[in-house]
Design goal:
Blueprint: H1 16-26, E1 41-49, E2 53-62, E3 67-68, E4 71-75, E5 82-87, E6 89-94, E7 97-102, E8 108-109, E9 114-122, E10 133-135, E11 138-139, E12 144-146, H2 158-162, E13 166-168, E14 171-173, E15 179-180, E16 183-186, H3 199-208, E17 213-219, H4 229-245, E18 249-255, H5 266-280, E19 286-289, H6 299-316, E20 322-324, H7 327-330, H8 341-345, E21 353-360, H9 366-375, E22 381-387, H10 399-411, E23 416-419, H11 449-459
Parallel strand pairs: 1-12, 16-17, 16-23, 17-18, 18-19, 19-20, 20-21, 21-22, 22-23
Antiparallel strand pairs: 1-2, 2-9, 3-8, 4-7, 4-10, 5-9, 6-7, 10-11, 13-14, 14-15
The structure holds ligand IDC.
């Protein structure tokens, strides 16, 4: 695969200063609450129930005049129900009466606009849907749409069920030592698409898309980490926390691409991974990806880079899973005439290591699949990036090839992340241009063809063995 990067035509160019400003604005003190003058609201309340708890997702649509700050009120019909952990709103509960106050970023709700919030709860008996809701004290008469069918999610979030991960044989294994497959999405470059990664978008990824993992793509060049190491490190840590709060695994991707020799960034990699691994060592949800797509270098050089960076991580987090990029844009060498034998013959000298394989379904078909089918029985593989499109990130969306690929990955329990969970103006992007920062990410109305496909695929039930 000739993965020559193309220059960005970005209207999305955000300086890191702007990233920080956005974040700061998100946590600023909430403006005063404006009462609804002309009443009207509609609520959608859906739940997933598991043995001892449930997740509720609530969409509040304002059918009245615009508000700037709001409180949703409702009462649990069963007194055993309790809010245990909420997101995108500040929750309060007295007896069965619950309030959810807007969280800053979603204070403003124009007429017809909607906000999505949610919470995890516990229950002792039945788990019925609240019958009536109020918005700023006004009863929502626009209707309450409960989803009566409860999809069982045994045990809770992906991280709750699987806990700390390790590599066992060629598989990624959970806390019970059983092979699992994690399925999720990759961010686009944080330097360009900071506004795509907020509470609402991560809520949608966890609760609407039902993803297991979020890959945090921190470019090193092209306006990325090298321009402001402290700010990008903070941003990655913030996203690790947001993933953790929702029970998602976070793949911390040191997104090297050009130059293709990872050694060029060796000192930066050591500084970055020393910082993130020290801060996040106690967390169960972090997976480290130390070089996105080495190219134009030998496997021996990549292996030597890995054996210098991995000890830096191990000093803080002795057994975290580490993904190592492979030769020729993480194609196991195939795009430069090699194959997996070079890795099998000379693996990285460290435990809990997996090897990256990347593909773009419209460009890479049977010849690449044959290598993966063979390599899957010989090496622990992790598809930390793939596209439904061509290797340029644009062009035709090839759903037939994508389906053949994902069926192969499912068969071998190979984890994957799709490029990209963003509204970039290219066909690999899940969201339509202009979606990010707008507060609405759930559902299919905001999605491109690739996003509609991936969301449906990720929403199929996980198979996480617990015994
Ligand atoms: C592409 C983006 C594009 C951006 C370009 C710049 O989609 O918007 O202009 O990077 O670097 C990869 C890389 C990934 C590429 C992607 C598509 O990991 O950074 O993103 N791709 O070209 N490998 C194969 C394809």
């Amino acid at each position: 695969m000739k993965l020559l990067p193309r220059p960005r035509r970005g209207r999305h160019l955000l300086a890191v200063g702007a990233v920080t400003a956005l974040t700061a604005a998100g946590v600023a003190t909430a403006p005063a609450v404006t009462a609804l003058t002309a009443p009207g609201c509609a609520v959608t309340y859906t739940t997933n129930t598991w043995q001892n708890g449930f997740t509720a997702n609530i969409t509040i649509r304002n059918l009245g005049d615009p508000v700037d700050g709001w409180t949703l009120g409702f009462a649990f019909p069963d007194s055993g129900q309790k809010v245990t952990h909420g997101w995108s709103a500040t929750y309060g509960q007295t007896g069965s009466a619950v309030t959810a106050r807007s969280a800053g970023h979603n204070d403003r709700l124009g007429t017809g606009a909607a906000a999505t919030i949610g919470f995890n709860g516990s229950h002792t008996g039945a788990n019925p849907t609240p019958a009536s809701f109020t918005l700023n004290g006004v009863t929502c008469t626009g209707g309450v749409t409960p989803t009566p069918t409860l999809t069982p999610t045994p045990g809770g979030t992906p991280v709750e069920v699987n806990g700390r991960l390790r590599v066992c044989g060629v598989h990624l294994c959970n806390q019970y030592g059983r092979p699992i497959q994690l399925r999720g999405m990759s961010s686009h470059g944080l330097q360009w698409f900071a506004d795509c990664y907020d509470d609402a978008s991560l809520d949608a990824l966890a609760h609407d898309w039902k993803a297991d993992l979020f890959r945090i793509s921190m470019y090193v060049q092209e306006g990325g980490y090298e321009t402001n190491p402290a700010a990008f490190t903070r941003e990655v840590n913030r996203l690790v926390d947001m993933a953790e709060a929702r029970g998602l695994y976070a793949v911390v991707d040191f997104h090297t691409l050009t130059p293709g020799d990872p050694t060029y960034n060796l000192d930066r990699a050591k500084t970055f991974f020393a910082a993130v691994s020290a801060r996040n060592a106690a967390k169960d949800n972090v997976i480290y990806e130390i070089a996105n797509e080495p190219n134009g270098v030998s496997w021996a050089t990549i292996k030597s880079y890995a054996e210098q960076v991995i000890p830096v991580i191990r000093a803080n987090d002795p057994d975290a899973v580490v993904i190592v990029g492979t030769r020729a844009w993480s194609s196991l060498g195939v795009s430069e005439g090699g194959n997996e034998n070079e890795v099998v013959a000379n693996p990285v000298n460290a435990a809990n290591v997996m090897y990256a394989f990347h593909f773009y379904a419209a460009s890479h078909t049977d010849a690449y699949r044959q290598v993966v089918a063979r390599a899957a029985t010989r090496l622990p593989l992790f598809v930390s990036e793939f596209g439904t499109v061509t290797y340029t990130g644009g062009g035709q969306v090839d759903l037939a090839s994508t389906t053949t690929w994902l069926n192969l990955l499912d068969q071998h329990k190979i984890s994957y992340a799709n490029w990209t969970y963003s509204d970039a103006p290219e066909s690999s992007a899940a969201f339509k241009p202009g979606t990010c920062g707008g507060g609405t990410y759930a559902g299919t109305g905001v999605l491109n063809e690739s996003g509609v496909y991936l969301r449906a695929r990720l929403r199929t039930p996980d198979d996480f063995p617990t015994g």
